Amino acid sequence: MVSYSPLFSSSPARWKQLVLSKRITIASILLLFSLLALSEVFLERGISTRILSSLSFDAKSLDQSPLSCSNPFDPSSFPHHTPRPTYTRKANATFLTLARNSDLAGVIHSMKQIEGRFNRDRHYPWVFLNDEPFTEEFTRCTSAVTSAKTHYGQIPREQWVQPDFIDEEKATKARKALSKIKGVFYADSVSYRNMCRFYSGFFYKQPLLQDFKYYWRVEPDINYRCEIEYDPFLYMEDNNKVYGFTISVPEQQETTPTLWDTSMEFFNQNPQYLHPNNAMRFASKDGGQTWTRCTYWTNFEIGDLDFFRGSEGYNRYFEHLEAAGGFYYERWGDAPMHGIAISLLLDRDRIHHFDDIAYEHTGWEQCPNPVSSAYERGRCDCDYDNSMDVKWKRYSCQADFEAALAVPRIHAA
Ligand code: GDP
Ligand code: MN
């Protein structure tokens, strides 16, 4: 009698059952292996972020990944938060942060401020730019702070490094000379100069910004000390504003000895770019002879990218400054450059002072007056006595801005 091993059962039903269970086992093993492999990829190496960082990705899908950075976002640290009024629309806008990988902690701090005070129920995306590739840690940790989309881009080398036409010997001498003067920050830094030049003439050309109309610049280690109870992007859109600032301060003489004259050279040659209702008074009290040195403090700015991209005047003005070499032979900043351009090229009605936004960076801060409705509405926790209006008033250009707004308008005939 032949005894059949169950394994070779000739019963078709049994055979089917066996094959099926074998398939299931093999499939389960395969599934297990692929899951293990995938979790390796996703959890250990974070390759997903590395691949996606060159594109864009939705942070929500990565919420479960372990963070080597500090705890992502704690809404309880913003106890006063109330949801924004229900808007039926959003502006076409993004936050914009230029940063080094080493700025990660400060960037996370700033993101938490923005998310906590404003963005957690508006979900505007973030664009991060760097002259080097962002690390996997940077993309993973920053994307975990926001529920909005995050985009990461690398700046083309030619838009970052010192151009070849700059005489390096002359530039080195200038840096050394500036370093000898007390109280001039970044006097010897080439990378700081690259950054200033980039924010003057190249940020708005980045591919990641092409589809956006408005940007809101965010630096590492900034603080927002009131709730932002309305949508500043929509404010810009609804009021036809092109440029918004919080703090205005004078630029140091030592960093920009020839910037005003070089600028006036351009505007004298090209008077067609001067807007008839410009804010020249912010930059000059005597119609252009001398400079007030006033600048909008560009570490905060909300701007219309279409203006920067589309303004022939702005772009030709930048080219003129670039050719003069002052970004490297002196230490021209993006704040003075934007300050002059915005004040001269635009109708002053299109420049907005966000006086109700409490903003602090490196100790300088704008804080609404506690008796104002803005302070109350925003449930602010800033110290008015420490603000640009009080303690730092001597460094504030607010009076010059108000004087500019008060200049009678020219009405077209
Ligand atoms: P400060 O506010 O004038 O003291 O200048 P910061 O050091 O804060 O720099 C201004 C902005 O540019 C910040 O967002 C920095 O993270 C960024 N930044 C400055 N230097 C570099 C650099 O060399 N590379 C990159 N990627 N970002 C930089
Ligand atoms: Mn800064």
Automatic annotation (TrEMBL):
Q: List the Pfam families.
A: Glyco_transf_15
Which keywords describe this protein according to UniProt?
Transferase
- Please indicate if the UniProt record lists Transmembrane as a keyword: no
The Swiss-Prot or TrEMBL record annotates one GO molecular function as:
transferase activity
Q: Which domain of life is it from?
A: Eukaryota
Which SUPFAM superfamilies did the record assign? Nucleotide-diphospho-sugar transferases
Report the family membership. Answer: Belongs to the glycosyltransferase 15 family.
Xref: PANTHER family: ALPHA-1,2 MANNOSYLTRANSFERASE KTR1
| Protein's recorded name | Nucleotide-diphospho-sugar transferase
